[in-house]
């Protein structure tokens, strides 16, 4: 059986929960600010901000995700009709805009690896268990889909990297035992320590999934 070729990254695709937990595919509705001027595409990473709304998380080497964007709903300012959309068009004026977000910090998602931009590349099984950075590409206004991927050429044990590689996807492997899709999860927050020679050191919890950070947004 021939499997489809992965010719471009497609964002983060939720598939399961870590540890075999039951997964119902549930989402949470989160408010998008009217006029928010950045497009958000299906499969993009999003974060809560201090006014209680949700925005695209544009982080690469660091990020503070609350989840994965899976479309939105709002009253179309032109037709005045309720609209369910694959992506949020930048600058849309709608006081009732809401995003569908997979916000479970234990969600596992499939994601494509790239060498640069939207160039899909194959990497080995040895990157499983390491941390990775996000590659932020513009999504498609035609399909509404994200083009975010992860960079497979710079995985490491770096605590600030926002993505943990959990497993590989064998279905789209090549003949050289290379893989262009991996199963990942959001990393936990990490601690940074500021050394103060004149007094006590200061520890700060930063990064990682927002629900796991005790300091909140």
Give the overall form: globular
Helix/strand/pairing category: mainly beta
Average pLDDT number: 95
Structure summary, number of beta strands: 16
Radius of gyration: 18 Å
Major beta sheet, specifics?
Answer: 8 strands, mixed
- Distance from first to last alpha carbon: 47 Å
Name the helicity range. Answer: under 10%
Poorly predicted runs are none
Taken as a percent bin, the fraction of beta residues is 25-35%
Helix-strand string: EEEEEEEEEEEEEEEE
Number of helices: 0
- How many domains make up the 3D coordinates? 1
3D structure, described in words:
The chain is mostly beta strands and 217 residues long. It has one domain (1-186). The protein has no helices and 16 strands. Strands 1, 8, 9, 10, 11, 12, 13 and 14 form an eight-stranded mixed sheet that branches. Strands 2, 3, 4, 5, 6 and 7 form a six-stranded antiparallel sheet that branches.
């Amino acid at each position: 059986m021939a499997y489809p070729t992965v010719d471009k990254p497609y964002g983060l695709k939720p598939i399961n929960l870590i540890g075999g937990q039951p997964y119902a595919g549930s989402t949470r509705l989160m408010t998008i600010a009217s006029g928010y001027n950045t497009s958000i595409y299906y499969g993009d990473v999003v974060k809560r901000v201090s006014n209680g709304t949700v925005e695209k998380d544009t982080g690469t080497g660091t990020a503070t995700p609350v989840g994965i964007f899976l479309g939105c709903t709002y009253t179309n300012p032109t037709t005045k009709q309720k609209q369910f959309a694959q992506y949020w068009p930048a600058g849309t004026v709608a006081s009732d805009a809401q995003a569908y977000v997979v916000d479970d910090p234990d969600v596992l998602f499939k994601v494509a690896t790239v060498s640069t931009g939207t160039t899909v590349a194959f990497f080995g099984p040895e990157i499983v268990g390491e941390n990775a950075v996000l590659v932020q590409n513009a999504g498609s206004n035609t399909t509404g889909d994200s083009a975010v991927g992860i960079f497979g050429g710079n995985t490491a044990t770096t605590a600030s990297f926002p993505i943990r590689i959990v497993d590989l996807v064998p279905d789209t492997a090549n003949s050289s035992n290379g893989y262009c899709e991996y199963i990942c999860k959001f990393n936990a927050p990490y601690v940074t320590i500021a050394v103060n020679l004149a007094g006590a050191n200061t520890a700060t919890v930063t990064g990682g999934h927002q629900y796991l950070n005790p300091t909140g947004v």
